Amino acid sequence: MPKSGQQWDPQFLSRSSLLTVFASLAAPLTHGRADWPSLEQYTALAEARRLACCPDGRQVAFSPAAPKRVRARRDTPIDPSQLYDGRIVLRGEVPCLHASYHDWFNALAWASFPRAKRAVHERQFEALCDWLVPSASRLPNRRTREQDALTLFDEGGAALVIARAEELPAASGTTDLNELRCAPQLVLFGHAAMEHLVFDSTPVRIAAMVLESGATRREGVALLDWVDAALELRLRDTHQFRQPSADRLVVLQPPHTALV
């Protein structure tokens, strides 16, 4: 559960080398700050990235998270546009807590992967509408397997960028990525996984999608932009993310040695 009212630490992004790829992009939200950025500053960063890499995409704005749903009557129908994914897809609003590292990393993910993040939430909203009975006054007790798959990737997914698919060992067992001849690049996508690396000292398992990049090795914002476009294609393929799965399971052990 995301927390709010957390103490600001301007150096938190430097606690994991796996977050270095985001450093230049995140600078407006970290550099020289004595306190938390505002939601308007989250929006400004996400909008600058959208205009730079996908100007035809819809703008999103970060807005205060709504309080828990309170109804005067138990039979009041649920309005999908008021739910989390509905607010994003229909209204262009990303509900966000102030002074929350979890939501800070979500804003960073939106700035880093604007196409893929929108694809996730559009898929989630479609799945929600299929799952929700018309005029229902409460959500079903359990999500569908597709919803689980999309949530797990949104919160804890990553891209494993490789030069050629045959360079990866067999999926059984674990292999130190640094021992491979051409080390893959692990690019975190899930904002909960990013938060875990910074603030927890326990191992974390990450569902990675393998992306074959060819001979070109990209770095920094160029890498993020390429991953964003490649992940969007995967997420918009409705035959994928139908149930929780991954191309590779990546285990990050403190101090964040990647094993697949």
Secondary-structure map:
Elements: H1 23-30, H2 39-53, E1 61-64, H3 84-91, E2 93-96, H4 101-112, H5 114-131, H6 145-156, E3 157-162, E4 185-188, H7 191-199, E5 204-212, H8 220-236, E6 248-253, E7 257-259
Parallel strand pairs: 1-2, 3-5
Antiparallel strand pairs: 3-4, 5-6, 6-7
Helix pairs in contact: 2-4, 3-5, 4-5, 4-7, 5-6, 5-8
User: How many structural domains?
Assistant: 1
Unreliable sequence segments: none
Shape: globular
| Beta strand % | 5-15%
Gap between N and C termini, in Å?
A: 27 Å
> Which structural class do you get from the secondary structure elements?
alpha/beta
What is the makeup of the main sheet?
5 strands, mixed
Count of beta strands: 7
Helical content class: 25-40%
Mean pLDDT: 87
Order of helices and strands: HHEHEHHHEEHEHEE
Question: How many helices?
Answer: 8
Q: Tell me the strand order in the biggest sheet.
A: 4-3-5-6-7
Q: Measured on Cα atoms, how large is the radius of gyration?
A: 19 Å
Task: Summarize this entry quickly.
With about 260 residues, this protein is α/β, with parallel strands linked by helices. It is about 40% helix and about 15% strand. The chain has one domain.
Describe the structure.
With 260 residues, this protein is α/β, with parallel strands linked by helices. It has one domain. It is 38% helix and 14% strand. It has eight helices and seven strands, in the order H-H-E-H-E-H-H-H-E-E-H-E-H-E-E. A hairpin with a 3-residue loop joins strand 6 and strand 7. Helix 2 runs parallel beside helix 4. The two termini are 27 Å apart.
